[in-house]
Amino acid sequence: MAGEVAKEETVVTNVKILKKSNVKPHKPLGKKECQLVTFDLPYLAFYYNQKLLIYKGAENFEETVEKLKDGLALVLEDFYQLAGKLGKDEEEVFKVEYDDDMDGAEVIAAAAEGIEVADLTDEEGTSKFLDLIPCNKILNFEGLHRPLLAVQLTKLKDGLTIGIAFNHAVLDGTSTWHFMTSWAELCCGSTSISVPPFLERTKARNTRVKLNLSPPSDAPESAKSATNGEVIPSVDPPLRERLFKFSESAIDQIKSKVNTNPPEGSSAPFSTFQSLSAHVWLAVTRARQLKPEDYTVYTVFADCRKRVDPPMPESYFGNLIQAIFTVTAAGLLLAQPIEFAAGMIQQAIVKHDAKAIDERNKEWESNPKIFQYKDAGVNCVAVGSSPRFKVYDVDFGWGKPESVRSGSNNRFDGMVYLYQGKNGGRSIDVEISLEANAMERLEKDKEFLMEA
């Protein structure tokens, strides 16, 4: 079930790695494989998707680690693809492979007993998270020879963190939090998970696409050896990250303002997401001090489960997202009231129906392009994650998280992560990565901060 390999204690800054082990599904499953489909493949050159859950409590760390590993072994019976590896068939089509001889998921036990929960919940950037989440700067196509799921359990002075890295070519945010809540369910004593994953991803798309991958020039040698073709250069600009917390009252104010004078042709009242998106897009555009003629792009990674034909269940396991773009000149955006921006975002989302999704897939399949994580557009604001995800319901038996954050992977100038606020209701946490000077201006923008 959980094959352990004790390691010598190593020190990474103030985090000590105590032990590394592998966890397989609790019972043998035999050989299984699943083709990666058009919705999955564009993310092969992204980095592993990282999440950090910060908890108080869980008094006995060693017992907690074993409990979490036992629950992981059980949940991997259903989510066995996360215990496998990436592979290619004879036609160079990517797939997920699993058999009982594979190592399974990686679990790291660590200690950082000089760090308190408050040190992490007060962190506005991500620098303190680096040593608490595995797979920093590991590209998804390295899943050819790395675990598709890695978990780091770190003991704190007054709690623990669960740092998770998922191969983004295998699953999206909806599937990530389905897995996490299922794992927690089993750790709390359930004998089976309430909603099994729908694993037949070829039901959403069944086109076989052959790929030649090109790693970025700054990719590790292990990634380069797994690919072939011309190397894509990658240069990351210096960024700052910041967490902005919008209370239920602030969200209501933003939504009320946006819906005061809806433009002609708007299909419905603007949603919370559309209203907050417009608020963020305008503020970031102001902070960047763009020229009036400069284009700015708003990008939403939209869940397509209910948009495809036939619709897929919410429990569909894999990637079933597509990037939706809307673009305008910065001067025009800033000269108009906020409902102009909200209307553009709403229109782009409404138009992204089954026909548009199919056309996008056919276009991509005729000329496959592997995106880098920062290819969302010029002067972009790109939204990942969703406040709909019930991240604070991930309770393994000692209480809900104190905070849920993203790691340092896949961040670029304009990347935004939205999370349900800790206080629940309609509160939303907004994680933003921006060029340092723009971030300094954003932090002083009273209109954005909802200050009088």
From TrEMBL:
<protein>
    <submittedName>
        <fullName>BAHD acyltransferase DCR</fullName>
    </submittedName>
</protein>
<keyword id="KW-0012">Acyltransferase</keyword>
<keyword id="KW-0808">Transferase</keyword>
